[in-house]
Amino acid sequence: MLIFTRRRDEAIMIGDEIQVTVLRAGKDSVRIGIEAPPEVAVHRREIFDQIREENQAAAQSTPRASNVVEHVRQWVSESDRTELPKER
């Protein structure tokens, strides 16, 4: 972990495009501002953890590719057995 000491209105840079600025420092908390490009996701840690857990749960409930392929094969073989009406 890299540790910085910053005062109010001082900032650190992460790469070329992300700036973290100390807005206010109190006894039990620090208010920071983060400037980042829109394609960079910025979340509080507890929100980040919740998103990750929900994504993992969704990935586990999603049918595996092999199951999807098997369902498509069954659907195709069933449709082959169904005779289409002849045109008049």
- Overall 3D form: elongated
Q: Using DSSP, what is the number of strands?
A: 3
Main sheet overview: 3 strands, antiparallel
**Number of helices, where a helix is a run of at least 4 consecutive DSSP H or I residues:** 2
Strand content range? 15-25%
Structural summary, described in words:
The chain is an alpha+beta fold. The chain has one domain. Helices cover 39% and strands 20% of the residues. The chain has helices at residues 45-61, 65-81; strands at 11-14, 18-25, 30-35. The protein has a 3-stranded antiparallel β-sheet with strand order 1-2-3, with no helix packed on it. 0% of the residues are buried. The model has no long low-confidence stretch (mean pLDDT 86).
Helix and strand topology:
Elements: E1 11-14, E2 18-25, E3 30-35, H1 45-61, H2 65-81
Antiparallel strand pairs: 1-2, 2-3
Essential attributes:
elongated, 88 residues, 2 helices, 3-stranded antiparallel beta sheet, 20% strand
Brief overview:
The protein has 88 residues and is of the alpha+beta class. 39% of the residues lie in helices and 20% in strands. The chain has helices at 45-61, 65-81; strands spanning 11-14, 18-25, 30-35.
